[in-house]
Design a protein that fits this description.
- About 40% of the residues lie in helices and about 20% in strands.
- Helix 12 crosses helix 15.
- Strands 2-6-7-10-1-11-12-13-14 form a nine-stranded mixed beta sheet.
- With about 475 residues, it is α+β, with helices and mostly antiparallel strands.
- The longest helix has 20 residues.
Length: about 475
């Protein structure tokens, strides 16, 4: 029997704001534990929540990017539970009226676009960070109260690849909109997977299994693909799938049981009494959308129109700082394809060797553009351009200074002048002509070398090859 996997994702995104969702405590990462807290975060009596306006603005941007209906009135609810990760014993969230609902996004698969529905996006506060040991747990409340948006998809994905591309698309939206840094390794973006199997043609869902604590895009695909295989084998052998929560063991490539679920938890939601409904003006919503930076998909399509391949556009857009550097480099008129080549190959090589990021180098983007312009202006080869680039990066020189220090001169592309060198090389090497006529392709490489030697390296290689073939055909 063949089974269809039905997959839905819940993505928690920590928002980049100066303060927390309902308190004035700083919203930061990697500070000393339990130092970035306010009385409200620790549930001191008499403290009252105040909604973070910037968090609302960023939630609207994400909702708009996901083609959602945006609620013009903010309502918050209490989600009651007695875990140790929030001192007050409840979480302020949006249960009844999420800020965004009924949206979608599109992923690329097999050269086509596939639409995945999104049920809702709601704002809430994060919980504290728990560090578990054998017989005790430590709590860091720096994270408690950090603004979150939770994005809940519809169960419309069917394998690990769908889910991976969906999470990539969500991360691109929250990063390029300025909502979050999207760093899964730091917990800024966390993914929970709900997956069930059913026979093809059956409309009812199978028993849902949840996979938690997935910390990379790659692990999302691998964990889902493994879980589909595990459940398929279990069903085929007559086993019953239990409703449970599992975790993914990256080192072994398997999921393992965390806990079995029996009934749905009753969180006893009710309206948050300390936050009255807040009416959002049309001007506020429009300004939040209008001020949103250019999103990934818009940049991607624009880069394709500039002549970049899909692969090159994807590589550059993997890092917003790289995309910013690219756009500044081409703003002076340099070829976008040539700039992209230098960034993807030479620049990334330099960054990998030095351990730097693109925004940590001293070379101005316009200087990279100048190097690319020099290639055309002075008929330099890409290799010479790369030498100039590395000289600039390593020695802190400007492009013309680096070119002069390296002794690089403009390439000779005068046909008549280069033809003289070509004919001289042919006259001096009759055996190479005979070898070429006999089908020995290496002979022409030798002749190119002789022409370059006679021209003292100044002849343009592509022109040398062109003229050599023309003259060889005549002899």
């Amino acid at each position: 029997m063949n089974f269809e996997a039905v997959i839905g994702l819940e993505i928690h995104v920590e928002m980049k704001t100066r303060s927390k969702m309902f308190s004035a405590a700083p919203n930061s990462f990697s500070r000393n534990v339990n130092t970035e807290v306010a009385p409200l975060d620790m549930a001191f009596p008499g403290t009252m929540p105040v909604v973070n306006k910037e968090a609302v603005r960023k939630a609207i941007r994400v909702a708009n990017a996901l083609h959602m209906k945006i609620d013009r009135e903010l309502h918050f609810d209490r989600k009651n539970y007695f875990y140790p990760d929030l001192p007050k014993g409840y979480q302020i969230t949006q249960q009844r009226r999420p800020i965004g609902s009924d949206g979608y996004l599109e992923i690329r698969r097999d050269g086509k676009k596939k639409r995945i529905g999104i049920e809702r996006i709601h704002m809430e506060e994060d919980t504290c960070k728990q560090t578990h040991f054998v017989d005790y747990t430590l709590l860091d409340y720096n994270r408690a109260g950090v603004p979150l948006v939770e994005i809940v998809s519809r169960p419309e994905m069917h394998d690990g690849y769908d889910a991976m591309k969906y999470v990539e698309a969500i991360r691109n939206i929250v990063v390029y909109s300025g909502t979050s840094d999207g760093k899964m390794e730091e917990g800024s973006l966390r993914v929970d997977v709900n997956i069930s199997l059913r026979p093809y043609g059956q409309s009812e869902f199978g028993t849902k299994v949840e996979i938690k604590n997935l910390n990379s895009i790659r692990n999302i695909q691998d964990a889902i693909d493994y879980e589909i295989l595990r459940q398929s084998r279990a069903l085929l052998s007559g086993e019953k799938i239990l409703q449970e929560t599992r975790r993914y063991d990256e080192s072994r490539g398997v999921t393992s049981l965390m806990r079995v679920k029996t009934d749905a938890v009753d969180y006893k939601y009710f309206a948050e009494p300390n936050i009255t409904p807040i009416r959002l003006s049309e001007d506020f919503v429009a300004e939040a959308i209008r001020s949103c930076p250019e999103l990934y998909e818009s940049k991607f399509e624009r880069y394709l129109a500039m002549g970049l391949s899909e692969k090159d556009a994807e590589i550059i857009l993997m890092d917003p700082a790289m995309a910013s550097y690219f756009e500044k480099a081409v703003s002076g008129g340099a070829s976008s394809k040539e700039v992209a080549n230098f960034l993807i190959v030479e620049m990334n090589s330099h960054l990998n060797k030095t351990g730097k990021s693109i925004d940590g180098i001293s070379l101005d983007p316009l200087d990279l553009g100048e190097i690319v312009l020099l290639l055309k202006k002075e008929n330099l080869t890409h290799k010479q351009g790369a030498d100039i680039l590395f000289k600039c990066l390593n020695d802190g020189l400007r492009p013309l200074e680096a070119k002069s220090a390296l002794g690089i001169v403009a390439m000779l592309d005068d046909r008549a002048a280069v033809l003289e060198f070509v004919n001289a090389a042919l006259d001096n090497n009759p055996q190479s002509i005979a070898d070429y006529k006999a089908g020995k392709d290496r002979a022409i490489s030798y002749l190119v070398g002789q022409v370059m030697k006679l021209s003292k390296g100044k002849a343009k290689p592509s022109l040398v090859m062109e003229l050599l073939k023309e003259e060889l055909a005549k002899r």
